[in-house]
Amino acid sequence: MKPMKPSARTSEYLAKGMIWAAAMSVMIVLVAIIVYILIKGLPVLNFSFLTQNPYNMGRSGGIASTIVGTLYITLVAILIAVPFGIGTAFYLAEYTRENIITRIIRFSAESLAGIPSIIYGLFGFIFFVIYLGMGWSILAGGLTLAFMVLPTIIRTSEEAIRAVPQIYREASYSLGATKWQTIIKTVFPSAIQGIVNGIILSVGRCIAETAAVIFTAGSVLSMPFSLFDSTRTMAVHFYILASEGVSMENAYGTAALLIILIFVVNVGVNLLVSRFINKNQKR
Amino acid sequence: MKKFKENLPGHIFLLLALSSISALALITGFIVVRGAPIITDVGLKDFAFGMSWAPSLEEYGIFPMIIGTVAVSLGAALIGVPIGICCSIFLSEFAPPFITAIFRPAIQLLAGIPSVVYGFWGLIFIVPFIRDYLGGPGLSILAASIILAIMILPTVISISEVSLLALPKQYKEGALALGLTHWQTIRIVMLPAAKSGIVAAVILGIGRAIGETMAVIMIVGNAVAMPESILDPVRTLTTNIGIEMGYATGVHQEALFATGIVLFIVIMILNATAQYIVSSGKQARGKERQKS
Q1: DSSP per-residue string spanning B121-161
Q2: Does residue A195 fall inside a structural domain?
Q3: How many CB pairs under 8 A join A and B?
């Protein structure tokens, strides 16, 4: 007997059910992860946890120095990656046609985006820490992360610049503006939201990164002052606390703060994007 | 002089662009220079296919880790890809607008969660579950595959959704007008038409799974041995670097960079393939448009 083939209607229902089930299970997993970490971690988060330095390898005390370290490294990474990323994006979008150079630039940027963070860590260690003699430091960690987020900034900025309507440029030229004036006074202000969006995404990636910073910034727990001090970021701190079983309570607290920061970053991006879309629609 | 002034920004932008992409050359150069000597010393065959990794005995064979990486990422793809493609169909075809408005940011959030948090969650929930109900130590290929499957979802979903949304409307309208049901339209017309984007999504997803380190370290067990079942612990290329980089020196450290070279080559091949598929897909579609 031939196996019965389900009718079009049955398979329609089956497929729809399967697709809804897949989508809902993904949502459930996401909610499960976030809710679990928050339930365990929120009670730990209080003023003294955020403002005290860790004591006894993180067994007691707070996470103040790791918060400062994370912010410091993220700041260095963003300050360095932004000019290069935006410059590259303007070159690709405004100053050239598709040719062999743009193809090489695009291929390299896409490839950089796919390279695993552990490779960035290896590279940062051998290049910044050893070869350039920076040692385990905020500077080395920040530079490594700058390399890592560069492709994100290039891609989002280029998209934002290309999304600026051609009429704007033509209007600017027709008023006698030069190319540079057009870019700085017309294109850049219209693209700024998209560009900022990419920068915020990169901030999120810097905060969440572990593998690339653990070998370049080290894991010293004291409060960092100069760029050449070694530091431990929140993500690294969480990893060490959780994997070595130092203090589960403090691990949960750190994880909850990480999740909250990532959440804030994502909400920020979405608000910007929706404002961007609204503004463009009004025009 | 005026001409020079007007051209100056363009030159500066070109300079910035060239220094940005020199990053790729720098990374390749430094990792290869640091890792290549040990591969030539040990011999490529003994390095890539050697069964024993014992830095104290100066034995550097990474074959078990290659197998571990393949097993873990294949597992992640088997679980993550069907779910991811279903989600992209859901987003582009079935979801009501208010659900899309929640679902899309949720997927972004999924991409933003630190990998160490995924690893930790796997350690708390997945590992004990496998140990209690399926046997083995819990720290296993299966545990890592499940967590990686979740982690590659954002990549798979966003890229396949983009390629589904990019399809010309006429495809869908034509199929529906011929009397196909919605699902038949998706299965017979839309998925094949979006094939190149979806394949690229899968390849990039697998690339992410291969490259992930911290989450895997926490749940894969890290034993250097050939696995016999998916419940056995393994060590992957990335975790080998992640675990030992902290204390390795000298030749041992070079061997870790050599592991990095192997990882780097695999990832570059996957990336280049995905880029090629995407660009050839775009060209094919462009030609079709010109015809019509």
Answers
A1: HIIIIIHHHHHHHT-S-S-SHHHHHHHHHHHHHHHHHHHHH
A2: yes
A3: 240
